[in-house]
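INTERNAL AUDIT FORM
Audit reference: QA-55
Scope: verify that the stored structure record matches its stored sequence.
Auditor: D.O.
Record contents follow.
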Amino acid sequence: MNLIPSQWSTPTFICEDMQSFEIGFVQELYMASAPVTLWDGKEHDPHYIELSYHEGILPEGGVKERFRIQTVRMKSTEEIIGFVSLYHGYPEGDSLYLAMMCISGDFQNQGYGQEVMKHFLLEASLLGYSEVRVNVSLRNWAGLRFWNKSGFNYISGIFGDKEFAEGKFADIELINRW
């Protein structure tokens, strides 16, 4: 199985496998990210990044070797401004599944996420993958717009509560297929 390289780049960023000494900083970035409680009713996991690094975020029956968490670092300053976590070969062998993509609030709405995603999709296609999937809360309107703009135009399913009400939540799985 071809894996996303441990380091790849865009014109502005270097994306590379996260190192253990970066866990604390990336966890802070994750904790400061979007208001997930409004989207799925859950709090940020205070150990999400550490768990991602050591065990991976795996589908049922998944193996750590197919999981990656990578930092997104500015080439000009070497500052970490985000991260991407992904699983190779789920749900099909030619699929990549994005567990999470996060760009720091200070760097949002500047086209950086689109740049990272454009080059990530290029890397995936060069490795022989035919699609990338992502799960998005239906209440995450900015995220839905971002993923749609990034070419995630196929819907594979809607999961969660069946009706809209306070305290009810649902997600949609989007696919970018080429």
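Auditor finding: record pair retrieved intact. The beta strands are 7-9, 13-17, 67-74, 80-88, 95-103, 131-137, 154-160, 170-177.
Action required: none
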